[in-house]
Design goal:
The protein is an alpha/beta fold. The chain is built from 7 helices and 8 strands; from the N terminus they run E-H-E-H-E-H-E-H-E-H-H-E-H-E-E. The structure holds NADP nicotinamide-adenine-dinucleotide phosphate.
Length: 235
């Protein structure tokens, strides 16, 4: 039996990933930072609720204890993320980007991901087939964002793409450090969720596809890569 934790599983891509992995037979811990939203989601999903705020050391430590007591962890899906859009769903461009905004976005998307991964490493190391999926973004790709004409080139924000580029680098370095684990970054595609005010053009079913696929990798699967549903992406 595979045991899987998904952070930020109370809605959006995390919720859909949890639904699919429950259906695939995983024992799923649906992570939520809010008890009420989490209880509702876990009930709908037939998953276990674990309270986890990725920005909070004590919350993450408590989640590790709970999942360890439940028998351990095989798959960690680092999904929780924010884009921090402003009024009217506007993305802060370079001229409006402050250190404070960068810190807010990095606190969840980067430091949160490292906090959670670091805390769960002992459990993952005890798994026979450990897997980590880091939910990145197409906007993490320096190659794509710097290519005129690509949709990502038109995105004006600084904090979010920079945070996801950091996630990609973290993925590469962890994958080298832990060759026994499958550790990959994924780009779900532009998906209609609360994160973008439902401006995304894909459904969560489409967006969760690559997250689910990489969460189900066996020991012979790729590691240290960056993928969307079509295959490997340029860094
Ligand atoms: N939607 C897209 O087009 C798209 C494209 C590429 C990548 N992504 C990535 O996909 C992931 C999921 O995003 P989504 O589109 O599904 O957005 P979403 O619907 O806004 O869901 C984000 C989830 O993260 C949780 N979260 C935020 N901060 C948290 C924290 N400090 N601790 C724990 N959980 C926290 C949210 O919980 P609350 O409900 O409590 O806020 C929510 O469950 C993110 O990493 C995002 O960057 C999304």
């Amino acid at each position: 039996m595979t045991t899987t934790l998904i952070t930020g599983a109370n809605k959006g891509l995390g919720h859909e990933t949890a639904r699919r992995l429950v259906a695939a037979g995983h024992t799923v811990y649906a992570g939520s930072r809010d008890p009420e939203r989490g209880r509702r989601a876990a009930g709908e999903l037939g998953a276990r609720l674990v309270l986890i705020d990725v920005t909070d050391d004590a919350s993450v430590a408590a989640a590790v204890k709970e999942i360890e007591a439940g028998g351990g962890l095989d798959v960690l899906v680092n999904n929780a993320g924010i884009e921090a859009r402003g009024p009217g769903n506007a993305v802060a461009g370079a001229g409006e980007t402050t250190a404070e905004l960068m810190r807010e976005v990095f606190e969840t998307n980067v430091f949160g991901l490292v906090r959670v991964t670091h805390a769960f490493l002992p459990l993952l190391r005890r798994s026979a087939a450990p897997v980590v999926v880091n939910v990145s973004s197409g906007l993490a790709s320096l190659a794509t964002v710097s290519t005129p004409g690509s949709p990502a080139h038109a995105y004006p924000g600084v904090a979010y793409p920079a945070s996801k580029a950091a996630v990609n680098m973290i993925t590469v370095q962890y994958a080298k450090a832990f060759p026994g684990m499958r550790i990959n970054a994924v780009e779900p595609g532009f998906t209609a969720t609360d994160l973008n005010g439902h401006a995304g053009t894909q459904t969560v079913e489409e967006g969760a596809e690559i997250i689910v696929r990489m969460a189900c990798l066996g020991p012979d699967g790729p590691t240290g890569g960056y993928f969307d549903a079509e295959g490997p992406l340029p860094w």
